[in-house]
Amino acid sequence: SSGINAEYGGQTVSLEDVCYKPLAPDNNNCAIMSPLQWFQNSQDNLDKTRGTKNYKDHMYYCARNYLSPEDTANTGIPCLGVFGGPAITNLVYGGYDGEDYESAQSILVTIPLNNHVSNNTLALAWEKKFLDYMKEYSSDKIQVSFSAERAIEDEISESSFQDLYTVFISYALMFIYVSVTLGKLQLACASNMIQAKSVVGLSGVIIVLCSVACSLGIFSFFGWEATLIVIEVVPFLVLAVGVDNIYILVQALQKDPPKSVSNVPQQISIVFGRIGPSMLLSACCETVAFSLGALSTMPAVKNFSLYAALAVFINFLLQCTAFLSVITWDLKRQLSGRYDCFCCVSDEEAENKSNRKGVVAVVIEKYWAPALFSSKCLRAAVVAFFFFIACASIGMINRIDI
Question: Which of 126, 263, 284, 332 has the most CB atoms around it within 10 Å of its CB?
């Protein structure tokens, strides 16, 4: 490890620059916990013998007497490390029973570093180089496991950046899905351009991200820690809840559309007054349900519940304010016969055709629903099928590995 050098800020950082030296400046050796400290990191001391006594006898003696200044019973060399302190047995051996040190299953090497504020960046640079070196190390004779103080933080950062692609793809797919399904899909391309809701869908997804960001910011201001599960799970959770309210609002306005551009605000007020209380009760129930999770004694569950509760409630507030503004603008655009995303382009003929029912609505109304409810036997078969699936799922719960 003393041969591992890192580059930082134009200077070479060695282990001697960052290691812990308890007796400095009188003794500038690093306090490395290792069985080799019983031999003062010297090959000559390791090979030293006295009669029939060799390194094994000395190691067994030092394991019992690691504070001994001299092993007079065996090789005559001290047990104290080269840094002037002891290499404590339970810090250099692992997997042994009682005082049967020869049965140890592993040897531990610990390298304490001086990572206080003034030296933290140098220590981090050296740890990074150390981890890179150990990742490339391999041996057919021994199994090596390693870690460093920054290793956990590095793994979390790496996994978080990897999950960013998953989050981005998920939100992109949700945006595409919402944009397509919110509008009335029709056969005429021009009508689809008017009925499309890509701006509304994008606004809904952005509002979800804003609500999560607000929740993170508020709790961070008060010193609450954000765990990895909060950052990765809460956005998907709020997205699922938020998209549901988006559909409720848009579908309600499509069933009872305004007659003219001037009538849009009044019609939105009527529709929102009809479905707003349901959205409020739903948001309050979800917020309270997540808030109850804060009663848990587990910090991760408690933090997750609080972050999720606040994010869901802020998402509802944004939908009642910012999202309604976007819907108002979009309805005025649609009634004016202007294309989605290209509001400067209008088509009066497509405007008249866009008032027809969408393809999905026609398929469900004329084909799917009549086919499903045309026969009592078919309805009974559907209920029986889902009842069977539910029972089978319940019966297999005991197969889950916890």
Answer: 126
The Cα 60–Cα 74 span in angstroms is: 10
- What is the reported pTM? 0.57
**Amino acid sitting at position 218:** I
The residue ranges of DSSP E strands in 14-70, in sequence order, are: none
Per residue in 103-130, pLDDT tens?
Answer: 888 999 998 988 776 667 888 888 888 8
Assign residue 337 a region: left if phi > 0, alpha if psi is -120 to 50, beta otherwise? left
pLDDT at 73 over 70: yes
Q: Which residues contact 28 (CB under 8 A, 6 or more apart)?
A: 16, 21
Nearest to 191 by CA among 352, 326, 364: 352
Helices (H), 147-298: 151-182, 189-195, 198-221, 228-255, 264-292
The rounded radius of gyration (Å) of the Cα atoms in the chain is 34
In a 3-state reduction of DSSP, which class is residue 362? helix
Residue with tokens 């047995």: 89
Q: If you search the block for the tokens 């089978």, which residue do you land on?
A: 392
User: 377 φ, ψ to 5°?
Assistant: -65, -40
Residue-wise pLDDT tens digits, 257-296: 666 666 778 878 888 888 888 888 888 998 898 888 888 8
Assigned token pair, 358:
């969408």
Contact criterion met (CB below 8 Å) for 200 and 330:
yes
